[in-house]
Amino acid sequence: QVDCHPAADSSTVKYMLSTVTDKDGRFSLSTYDSGDGLPEGTYKLTFQWLEISLAPRDQLKGAYADPANSQHSITVVNGESSDLGIIELSSTGP
To answer: CA 23 to CA 70: how far, in whole Å?
Structure first.
């Protein structure tokens, strides 16, 4: 799961937006419809690898779940596409 947390000074979006990766770890970010992207602004990205069960557990052990400690961000500019490239995560943390 990839969560996008708007910057504290964001006037565009006040809530977190989420998506899930495909089986290869690829993802695209959307707001209302698939592929529509995010509203303009800066976001901190957090990641969780949730085990599907009655009590989901993060296989990354929370190492990338806190937006205050996130080393990954994206700035969305209206009319421009963004590619985050490859983001490598480890179950032992950053």
So the answer is: 23
